[in-house]
DNA sequence: CAGAATCCCTTGTGATACTG
DNA sequence: CAGTATCACAAGGGATTCTG
């Protein structure tokens, strides 16, 4: 990379330049938000998350939880029982994040139709071959 | 895919299940937000965007603009002059989106330090080998 | 000026199998 | 139950070159 040996990644540089990107890098993963939502009501177990989130693999659940934990968005509590029981819980910071994500949800719901139409119109105009997909 | 021949992609299924993801899929790209921000002040030319957004390649600028245009977030206006002049402008919908993204920026700025510390603490605890990166 | 086309590498994600 | 390990693959993104 042209950034050379500054010891700072391109990712980090972008994040510094744009705080929004910093959040997005944290939440843009395919599963992060769904985990945040699923855990919003209180402590939740690994398997409950796995069952509650349609289509997630065990691997991705683990990886995403680790990242969230690393950023201080979830806490991981191991109950030393047999069989093991691990509970994940949102931190206050994550709850705040969830609140602001609600804003985005609002925007999405208000404009979902509008955007779908824009997309259809664009495709009809620029990509006619997709019309019978 | 287990969805089979329903004619609907996995992406779309997730989006329907979770409106937030729908927005994120639209904005999570590496450059989308920076373009939205750069264009927020008014019409802006291709080259101005290219110069204003540190590190973006011509290819990604084009691709991202096309996606934004497709979703009805930016308009593309070609002035038939020589040399050609193309201006991009945010739609009202995109301006609304920008406003809600501001919320996220606020969250990021308020918690940037907190998260950096959480990350450092986590790495120190779980990944000591990264401490001299 | 504002792209389009091509090549290539990195990253994210899914599938599967194994374990304390 | 709650993971970890490994493989394999597709998409995202960067660098470069060409053009109306």
TrEMBL record, chains A, B:
Keywords: DNA-binding, Transcription, Transcription regulation
InterPro entries given in the database record: HTH_HxlR, WH-like_DNA-bd_sf, WH_DNA-bd_sf
Ranges for domain HTH hxlR-type: 18-116
Superkingdom of origin organism: Bacteria
Pfam families: HxlR
Transmembrane segments: none
Protein name: HTH-type transcriptional regulator YybR
Organism expressing this protein natively: Streptomyces cyanogenus
């Amino acid at each position: 990379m042209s950034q050379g040996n500054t010891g700072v990644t391109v990712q980090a540089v972008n994040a510094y330049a744009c705080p929004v990107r910093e959040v997005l890098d944290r939440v843009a993963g395919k599963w992060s938000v769904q985990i945040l939502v699923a855990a919003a009501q209180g402590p939740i177990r690994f398997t409950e998350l796995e069952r509650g989130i349609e289509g997630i693999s065990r691997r991705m659940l683990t990886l995403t939880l680790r990242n969230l934990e690393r950023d201080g968005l979830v806490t991981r509590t191991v109950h030393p029982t047999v069989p093991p029981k691990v509970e994940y819980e949102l931190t206050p910071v994550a709850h705040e994040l969830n609140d602001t994500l609600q804003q985005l949800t609002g925007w999405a719901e208000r404009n979902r139709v509008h955007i779908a139409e824009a997309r259809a119109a664009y495709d009809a105009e620029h990509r006619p071959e997709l019309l019978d997909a």
